[in-house]
C-alpha cells in the first residue's frame, strides 16, 4: 500500500549529500523524491560537475588539540534544526513489531547489574533470534594477521564471482566488549551479498580483558595489512577500500580514518558509519531522551565505557567527535536512528564533516533504535535500505542524489 506524502515523511528516512561550506541559515535546499512507494529526500538539482566532484578546497592544517564542545554544539543544533524544518521530527513512534519488542524491555530507573558473560550472551541471543542467516557465499576464510608475535583473527567473505572486487573492511560493534566476528557474521555476509565485494572482518581484542587502546590497535593493524592478507590467500581485489564500522566499531573506524587522513591519505577510499558511537563523554540530550527502554540503555553505555577505559584516560580527547577532521577526510555515509541514545552525537559528527567541506551522506531513520541490524527481522525495510544504500555508496552511485526512475514520475516535483 502506498503511503501519503505526509505519512511517508514521518516513517521513512532522509538522505542528503552536502558539498560546500556550512552556513546554518541557508544550510540546504532539499527536494523530496519518491522511489517505488518510499519517499526519500535529496538535494535539489545542481550542475553535473557539482554533483560528481567535491568542492575544491585546500586541506586544513590538522591541529593536535580537540575542538571545543560549544563549537560542536552550535553546529549540531543548527543542523538538527534544519533537518527538522525540512523533514519533521527527529524521532517518531516505532512500527508495531519493534514497538512490541520494546514493550518487553525494563523501564525501571534502578541501575541494572551488568556482567561481561551475560552481555555477550545477550547480544548473541537477540541476533540469533532476529536475524535470518543470509544466503551462502562462495567462500568464507578464517585466518589471522601476525603482529609482534601475536595473532589477530580475521574472516574473509568472498562473493560468488572470482573477478577482482573492491574491499570492505568491517569493524563490528558491541560496546568494545560484547560483539565478535561470530556474532556479527550475518551482517558481514549481508555486506558481501549486497555489494558483491570482498569483506574482511577483524576479531579485535575486547574489554575488559583488553582495555583501551588494545582493540583499536588491533583493528588499525589488520586494516593496514588487508591487501597483504588477500594476496596471501590469492584473492583478487581492486585497491578501493571502504571502511565500515557498526556502533563501537564506528568509533574505531572514525578514529582510524582521522589517524590516516594525513599519514596515509587516500588509503581509505570511503567510510561507512552505522549508528556509530562517537563521544565517550556521554554528554548529549538524546542519551537522556532515549536512555531507557530503547534496546540500548545509557547505564549500559556507561558500563561499557568503564570496562574499556581502565586507566583514567581523557575520554574527550580520544572521542572521534572532538578530534581533528581534514577537508580530505574520506567520503562518508552515516546512518542514525531517532530512538537511539547516540542520535545527537551522530548529527554532531555529520555537522562537523559538513563544516570541513568533507563529502557526507546522512541517512536518518526517525522510528529506529540503536543496533537495529541485529533485529533485522523486526525492521526489514530499514535494514534492507541500509545494505542497499551501502552498495550504492561503494559503487559510487551516491556521487549524485538518489533519483526517481524515469518510468516513475515524481509527484512531489511540482506540488
UniProtKB/TrEMBL annotation:
Keywords of the record, alphabetical order, are: Hydrolase
Query: Start and end of every Alpha/beta hydrolase fold-3 domain?
Result: 168-373
- Do you know which InterPro entries this protein is assigned to? AB_hydrolase_3 (IPR013094), AB_hydrolase_fold (IPR029058), GDXG_lipolytic_enzyme (IPR050300)
Q: Which organism is it from?
A: Ochrobactrum quorumnocens
| Molecular-function annotations in GO | hydrolase activity
Q: Which named protein is this? A: Alpha/beta hydrolase
What Gene3D superfamilies does this protein's entry cite?
alpha/beta hydrolase
